[in-house]
Amino acid sequence: MNEPAGAATAADAAASGQALVLFAHGARDARWREPFDRLQARLAAMLPDCAVRLAFLELMSPNLPDTLAELSAGGARNVLVVPVFFGQGGHLRRDLPALLDDCRAKLPGIRIRCAAAVGEADSVLDAIAAYCVACLSASGD
Question: So where does this one cross the membrane (predicted)?
């Protein structure tokens, strides 16, 4: 897997035991992942002692089980999975909990927590609203 510049290696997870996994849906078009790669790179720069990864539900790799296994092998002991989804749809209500339960059973040496979808946070909605207002202002209409 190609790591973005500044991304921590699996061995870096052993230093702090901390890891962050951005969990996205995936798409057939490879360009779709570009903003997620940029987000991963930004977080890696902000969290130099934390292994920051990107994993996908489907259509792209790596998948979540492979990512968590790699982090565990690298020494991660406390992993936070952050769904980079706008809301809590079926994938996050059904598919992700089952996937996490399976990973927890296979990787008993690590603690795997899961945050709510990023779109559920008011601060994210505020940032999107500010972006929309800025775009409207910039359009001159």
Answer: none
Convert the pLDDT of each residue in 42-84 to its tens digit. 999 999 999 999 999 999 999 999 999 999 999 999 999 999 9
The whole-angstrom separation of Cα 64 and Cα 55 is: 5
pTM over 0.70: yes
User: How far is Cα 77 from Cα 104, in angstroms, rounded to an integer?
Assistant: 12
Query: Hey, what long-range contacts does 99-108 have (CB within 8 A, 24 or more apart)?
Result: 99/57, 99/64, 99/65, 100/64, 102/65, 103/64, 103/65, 103/68, 106/65, 106/69, 107/68, 107/69, 107/72
Instruction: Report the alpha-carbon angle 109-113-115, nearest 5.
Output: 165
Query: What 3-state class would DSSP assign to 35?
Result: helix
**pLDDT of res. 6:** 40
| Burial of 117: CB neighbours in 10 Å, binned 0-12, 13-18, 19+ | buried
Range 12-138 classified under CATH 3.90.1150.10: no
Q: Domain-by-domain residue ranges, the chain?
A: 12-138
